Amino acid sequence: xxxxxxxxxxxxxxxxxxxxxxxxxxxxxxxxxxxxxxxxxxxxxxxxxxxxxxxxxxxxxxxxxxxxxxxxxxxxxxxxxxxxxxxxxxxxxxxxxxxxxxxxxxxxxxxxxxxxxxxxxxxxxxxxxxxxxxxxxxxxxxxxxxxxxxxxxxxxxxxxxxxxxxxxxxxxxxxxxxxxxxxxxxxxxxxxxxxxxxxxxxxxxxxxxxxxxxxxxxxxxxxxxxxxxxxxxxxxxxxxxxxxxxxxxxxxxxxxxxxxxxxxxxxxxxxxxxxxxxxxxxxxxxxxxxxxxxxxxxxxxxxxxxxxxxxxxxxxxxxxxxxxxxxxxxxxxxxxxxxxxxxxxxxxxxxxxxxxxxxxxxxxxxxxxxxxxxxxxxxxxxxxxxxxxxxxxxxxxxxxxxxxxxxxxxxxxxxxxxxxxxxxxxxxxxx
Length: 431
Known about the structure:
This is NADH-ubiquinone oxidoreductase. The chain has helices at 11-22, 35-40, 57-64, 85-103, 123-136, 158-166, 186-198, 217-227, 240-255, 264-271, 278-282, 292-297, 303-335, 337-346, 355-371, 375-399, 414-426, and strands spanning 2-6, 26-31, 45-48, 69-72, 107-111, 141-147, 149-151, 172-175, 180-181, 183-185, 205-209, 215-216, 235-238. The chain is α/β, with parallel strands linked by helices and 431 residues long.
């Protein structure tokens, strides 16, 4: 069949596409930025589109034309610079369902979430439930799947945070460490979608996808630490107030375009626990869902997982250090521009021109130091840092080569800062 997967390069969507291709279907994937996906999955027909802008049936009709099945694996955690929950979870789904009915699409598979509820105070869950309602009210042959905490070989969002906390040195920090969690393997989610697409599940079905037994978040983190091959460490509960402060900080970063999983909405969801009805799946299917232990055993960790887990928590520290370093450099240059200009004059620069490079350099430092904090500007800001540093080293070598041997090493010390920029570029990608 011809199957359209929304959010096809996401944590769940990519696994679904792989399974549907193995099942022999013709698969199309939709997402905002599909360039990387096109390189990784050339067998898929990729469609570049922002769901939050497709809010009328006529917007969707060209996309769903000729499709037999639509699978919606798209979603966002919280409103931010790039994400609009109501538009993605409700508005676009309402329009999409109407388009599917008009275009004669046979089946619709909705990936929802445990806890989706119209009455929820959490916008993530209430908007998810509104989208589910639109699907369930349609004339389509629909299936709504509500996975618990999805565990996958890919790592970003909440799964990345789990790995990073599990790899914390000496101890494992955890907010709400006693809250119950039920996980599900992404391969089990893909199996459920495969069956729904094939029509082998009961029609008009809403079902939870969770392992049979709940466990505490502390136990989940301990399992991940063992999976990483790290020595056993004590899980240390972190006061809820610190979690709320971290969530508030992550919310601010969200407005700058960074998609941190440690958002206030995620903490609110964790406070309620991530649990569902495991029996609901067993009642309709003979495929038993894996436990967390079996899921981790099926995707053994190696050195790249340990590198990732350790670097993930270091990433915000790296960017904060770079921002502070460049902002401080620019601000100090402005405050002490006369002294900086005197240095240039002593090296042969005309006095009437010496202030110009100081002001330009200070403004450039402040600009890149601020820009690196904005996700959409981070890459050009990092590249600009490299260019500015290389220009500074080249100019200093021409004007004052003796500074390479100066006791405090003003030129030598720029080399480690340049290396830190290269590390930031290496870890910039979120998915």
